[in-house]
Recover the amino acids of this structure.
């Protein structure tokens, strides 16, 4: 897996914000939240923002016009003023953009794309075009977080997008939150309650393994299976697979089914290890860990495959950023995860 790295951001750069998935950023009920996130991009990171026609067109229009979303995405990649593209939020149907994507546009204009959840689709589009992108925070959930962006998230964005240096060991956040506070102007000054964040757990494996990063939100990966967007199986050779699930909190039964599907495709026998994100609900912690061990060890005999569980990425607060295609390392003896390369040049 040899992906082109985009150029690093610097203060004063211009980025595009797009509604690649849900259009809720433009709805009257959430526009205040969008404006907060946009303001913080300027105040915290020194970035200027431009929008495209679908950015704030609202849920109904954005849903009804996947071709317009794709048109804006292509325009943002082609615009030399735009140094990065950030997604407003996830959703559930950005796979509908696929017929309208020109992969040569992405290939010939490599730049940072960042988002998570349903934006796994856009990341796989970038990967198909040979360009590395960043699985990381979005405007409405993270940049517009109540009171302030979590410092852990801010630090990861700065280290990942603004520095052409190896990212290094990903230390766990001191705290995390699973609390949902409704997005209303009245609640914007109510800080999310947090709790102490346990260190990642090594479920199985030994030694030290290295591989290039590939993965995303498991529900969304399922949308792609059988489409031209899904990577050739060779892309998973010697990779480290990063996986997480969404706020829909799929059961351990679904997790087992998806893992078995990966096994049947030949993915799990090719990879070097797995890093698994913290699930959205505490009730799924033990069932997910048991399911991973059951499928990998009991069913597949992959007891030596390293699995590090409970990391701060994806549908959790705060989160760190993951660059696709970057070389990473799992140290089973220390139960640590490191990204050994820079995300940008």
């Amino acid at each position: 897996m040899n992906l082109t790295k985009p150029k690093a951001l610097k203060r004063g750069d211009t980025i595009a914000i797009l509604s690649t998935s849900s259009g809720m950023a433009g709805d009257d009920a959430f526009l205040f939240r969008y404006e907060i996130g946009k303001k913080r991009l300027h105040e915290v990171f020194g970035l200027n923002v431009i929008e495209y026609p679908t950015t704030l067109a609202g849920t109904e229009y954005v849903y009804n016009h996947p071709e317009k979303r794709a048109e804006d995405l292509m325009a943002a990649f082609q615009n030399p003023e735009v140094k990065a593209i950030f997604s407003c939020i996830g959703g559930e149907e950005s796979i509908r953009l696929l017929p309208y994507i020109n992969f040569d546009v992405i290939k010939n204009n490599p730049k940072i794309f960042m988002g998570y959840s349903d934006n796994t689709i856009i990341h796989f589009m970038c990967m198909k075009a040979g360009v590395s992108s960043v699985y990381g925070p979005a405007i409405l959930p993270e940049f517009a977080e109540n009171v302030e962006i979590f410092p852990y998230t801010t630090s990861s964005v700065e280290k990942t997008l603004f520095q052409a240096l190896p990212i290094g060991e990903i230390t766990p956040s001191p705290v995390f939150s699973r609390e949902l506070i409704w997005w209303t102007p009245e609640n914007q000054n109510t800080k999310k309650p947090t709790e102490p964040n346990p260190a990642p757990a090594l479920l199985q494996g030994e030694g030290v393994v290295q591989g290039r990063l590939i993965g995303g939100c498991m529900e969304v990966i399922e949308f792609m299976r059988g489409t031209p967007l899904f990577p050739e199986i060779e892309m998973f050779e010697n990779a480290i697979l990063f996986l997480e699930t969404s706020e829909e909190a799929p059961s351990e039964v679904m997790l087992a089914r998806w893992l078995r599907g990966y096994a049947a495709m030949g993915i799990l026998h090719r990879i070097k290890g797995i890093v698994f994100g913290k699930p959205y609900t505490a009730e799924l912690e033990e069932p997910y860990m048991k399911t991973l061990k059951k499928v990998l060890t009991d069913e597949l005999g992959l007891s030596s495959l390293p699995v590090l569980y409970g990391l701060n990425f994806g549908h959790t607060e705060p989160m760190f950023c993951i660059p696709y295609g970057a070389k990473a390392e799992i140290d089973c003896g220390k139960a640590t995860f490191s990204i050994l390369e820079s995300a940008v040049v």
Q: What stands out?
A: The first strand starts at residue 14 and ends at 18. The mean pLDDT is 97. The chain is about 30% helix and 20% strand. The chain has two domains: 14-165, 175-339.
